[in-house]
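User: Predict the structure for this protein chain, please.
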Amino acid sequence: MDSGQLPQPVSPRGLRRGELAALDGLAAVGYVVVFLAGPLLAASHRPEWLRWTAAVAVVALVTARRRWPLPAFLLLLGGSLWCLSAGLMRDPLLAAGYTLYPLALSAPRRRWEPRAALGVISVLAVTLATVGGPAPQDSGTWAVWMAFLGCALLGGVWTVGRAVGDRRAHVRYTTQLLADRAVADERLRIARELHDVVSHTLSVIGVKAAIAHHVADVRPDEARDALGVIERTSRDALT
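Assistant: Here is the predicted structure, written as structure tokens:
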């Protein structure tokens, strides 16, 4: 495939941190409109400032998920659980899962992590919740049900984030390995070329010096020619 057939990226220069944060903010606004606007408007028994503060906090924390992943996730998780118990949220911790993803990518790798087991448990939990019928209508039981689904979602997000992070680390390692190999090959090529130049030059100099030594007394012109060849050859080799 030639270069004209290669797929072109959406943004050839890549997105800056501020642009990514702006996209996160737009996603947070969409989340608030879809998942929080209805419950916020319906929960008239809650103070107005408290209901809309929750919406603003969600937007702010989701926007900050790349810069401060751990604080943003912990604050959003705690706030989401509180909103579930207070009836201000109608989804299983989607915003917290969205904020958890960059944390899963950037968190230090431990020697042992049950990622595979966590992913399997999360898939089984979501599957059981899906085939188990509709969510309970009781408000307290419903909040527990949503929290359960949310934990399963967070486990799945963590597993996916870790898998993507491992894949990126492998790509970086492979790229660096290929680059180091290319540098080593280039150094080896240069060393071979230098070896060939030095070997050829020394051979010519040795032959011409021997000729000049033997004919210096009887044929001085030929000896001078040999010395001239030695001079030119040595200069070319140095160049």
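The chain has a mean pLDDT of 77.
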